[in-house]
Amino acid sequence: MTATAPREEQLWSRCAGCATLLYRKRLRRNLDVCPECGVHSRLGAPDRLRQLVDPDSFRPLPDDPADVDPIGFVDVVPYPHRLTAARTGTGLAEAVLCGTATLGGHPAALAVMDFRFLGGSLGCAVGELITRAAERALEERVPLILVTASGGARMQEGVLSLMQMATVSQAVAALREAGLLTVSVLTDPTYGGVAASFATNTDVVVAESGARMGFAGPRVIRQVTGRALPDGFQTADFLLRHGQVDMVVPRRALRGRLVALLAAGRARRPRPIGAAAPATSPPVPRQPTPHATATAVDPPAEVADPWATVRLARHPGRPTTLDYLESAFDGFVELHGDRLGGDCPAVVGGLARLDGRPLMVIGHQKGHTTAELVARNFGMASPAGHRKALRLMRLAARLGLPVVTLVDTPGADPGVGAEEQGQAAAIAENILALTVLPTPVVAVITGEGGSGGALALAVADRVLMLQHAVYSVISPEGCAAILWPDRSAAPQAARALRLTAPDLHRLGVVDEIVPEPADAAHADPDAAATALRDAVRANLSPLLDLPPATLVRRRRQRFRRFGAARAGNRAGAR
User: Fold this and answer.
1) Rounded Cα–Cα distance for residues 410 and 451 (Å)
2) 32-46, 464-478, 553-567: least confident range
3) Beta 12-14 vs 21-23: how paired, if at all?
4) Which residues, other chains included, contact 46 with Cβ-Cβ below 8 Å and sequence gap of 6+?
5) Among 19, 171, 547, 568, whose Cα sits 20 to 30 Å from the Cα of 435?
6) Alpha helix stretches (DSSP H) within 30-102
7) pLDDT tens sequence across 215-232
8) Cis, bond preceding 189 (omega within 30 deg of 0)
9) 205 and 186 in contact (C-beta within 8 Å)?
């Protein structure tokens, strides 16, 4: 019996939905969909490709990104050990397979994520590979298909993983500009930074039957709200009812539906894969040199304890966006509403002046008292807040006004209502829009820069950061709860995440650190406002005379440089 038990185990599989014991070959013939209850089992990227593309047509991208450990992250084990285990367990180099193929004879570039590899998390290498797939689609003038399966951005690479949301999004924007179709296929599960960027900002969003998608995961929502979740919450059918996907397709019909989309998307007859790109459509450079910075300010001395910086960034007396609008800018006129049905109090914005020059200022608003914090939802923007910000950014572009954003949020609103209203797609659209906004954008991290909720206002030409602010892919408490035995390890997580201004200045995420008064901004708000005003003025001035096309190109170069190769260089330079 002991000799045959392993083989018997391989022959049978128990359905996770109905617990039926299924013959493995029968299940595989049914595309890993339970014939009894219809539950769609998760697929690895190789199996997914075999089901979707024409036989023997897939050609992987010819080059792999460098191995990266950009912040030297260690929790209970070093990050490289986790990578090694994931590679051994999956046989993959990373959490995505990218290449070109044909579907029903139609050429396309594909990026297929694999949840088995560290939860399909988005890190520098994954972002680099998906971006290269998009760049190949642009070079070959073929559609791009993204198949997502991810828990979100990779914590072990800190805020650099967050930057991949913008990097991939701007590659999607380039395909839009070229008139090339982009399609995302949501599979189970798709959450966090992947959901709030390229999974939802493509032309067509398809959900496989049984898929779940959202910005915040169910466990986080239950912890934050203390509420039971509605039946079917964040499932494919839920997403369809709430207008967040174009269609829900069972696995057996998925290939046919993609073939139909590719056929309809061939408004221009593409060149054969491998043919030279036309001179009028040059490929996007893979590793451009970032443009010269305008600052010669030396960063302040690094604080000894990142956890102390986290507490300073959250201090209730710290100046808010409305405080800075009153003291650092002149003539603020607030504009309300997303024009779709909401006016989120966690985001304020409107017209203001700096040295007599009109501009648009948009920022997160917390408050100082408990009542103010509750009324402003602790600075956590709803989809209406992100859409209000987007409306004001676009208004600024039409009027030819520069945009200044003030970022201070623990993250986007993780509530049930926010998910019903499309939180992930709202963040994704802001990120996508900022990559093409034809007017100068200066972002200032003034307090907490929390995850995708912060990035939704921080895709900018220049990113500044107050001395005692923080900017992170996840909160230290959240990181500790996932990777350490308990949440009491938050101070350790804060150190591991490299979330302070000096850390991020060294990594190139932040262009300039704005010094704070002694004992931090809350000790002398007027001095903090003066420092912020001077820093915004100095960084905005060189951008004002640049042509819009140059602004957009340089902004894209700024975020394109966060690929795996440059992250590896930064890691080696520590």
Assistant:
1) 8
2) 553-567
3) antiparallel
4) 97
5) 568
6) 45-52, 79-90
7) 988 888 888 788 888 889
8) yes
9) yes
Rounded to an integer, the average pLDDT of 197-220 is: 93
User: How far, CA to CA in Å, does 465 sit from each of 85, 284, 511, 552?
Assistant: 36, 29, 8, 22
Question: Residue 96's closest CA among 234, 215, 201, 198?
Answer: 198
User: Which neighbouring-strand residues pair with 223?
Assistant: none
**pLDDT tens across 145-158, in order?**
999 999 999 999 99
* Measured CA distances, 328 to 94, 352, 425, 531 (Å): 46, 10, 32, 9
Chain segment 64-108, per-residue pLDDT in tens: 777 778 899 998 899 999 999 999 999 999 999 999 999 999 999
Alpha-carbon distance of 334 to 372, in angstroms, equals 18
Question: Cβ-count burial of 560 within 10 angstroms (0-12 exposed, 13-18 middle, 19+ buried)?
Answer: buried
What number of residues does the chain have?
574
Phi/psi of residue 143, nearest 5 degrees: -65, 160
In this structure, are residues 471 and 465 in contact, taking their beta carbons and an 8 Å threshold? yes
Of the listed ranges 45-49, 250-254, 338-342, 520-524, the one predicted with least confidence: 338-342
Strand residues in 49-203 grouped as ranges (E): 59-60, 96-103, 106-113, 144-150, 182-191
